[in-house]
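Severity: low
Component: inverse-folding endpoint
Summary: output formatting inconsistent between runs
Steps to reproduce: submit the following structure tokens with default settings.
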């Protein structure tokens, strides 16, 4: 069953319009796709927290992967040169006390 939903958010600090990117977040276990529209200079932490809240998951137990690399909350789509319709995959963390999704 394919599920799709959409969320949009931007940084409150930026008053001028900024470039936006549409990103898709998917989990191989349930085959659902969530779609997010966000500013290219907004930290990915907002997307990560929104995804976990929507899916009723603890953000500390989930890893986000883009182009084979784990994402960090303070990275931005601009830093990673993300484009519209790029896909971020999620996987459940096995067991750890702290991981790369914690703020550094």
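Observed output (run 2 of 3):
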């Amino acid at each position: 069953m394919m599920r799709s939903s959409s969320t949009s958010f931007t940084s409150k600090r930026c008053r001028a319009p900024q470039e936006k990117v549409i990103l898709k977040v998917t989990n191989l276990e349930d085959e659902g796709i969530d779609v997010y529209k966000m500013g290219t200079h907004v930290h990915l932490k907002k997307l990560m927290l929104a995804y976990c809240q929507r899916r009723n998951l603890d953000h500390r137990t989930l890893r986000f992967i883009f182009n084979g690399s784990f994402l960090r909350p303070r990275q931005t789509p601009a830093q990673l040169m993300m484009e519209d319709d790029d896909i971020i995959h999620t996987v459940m963390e096995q067991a750890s006390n702290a991981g790369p999704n914690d703020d550094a």
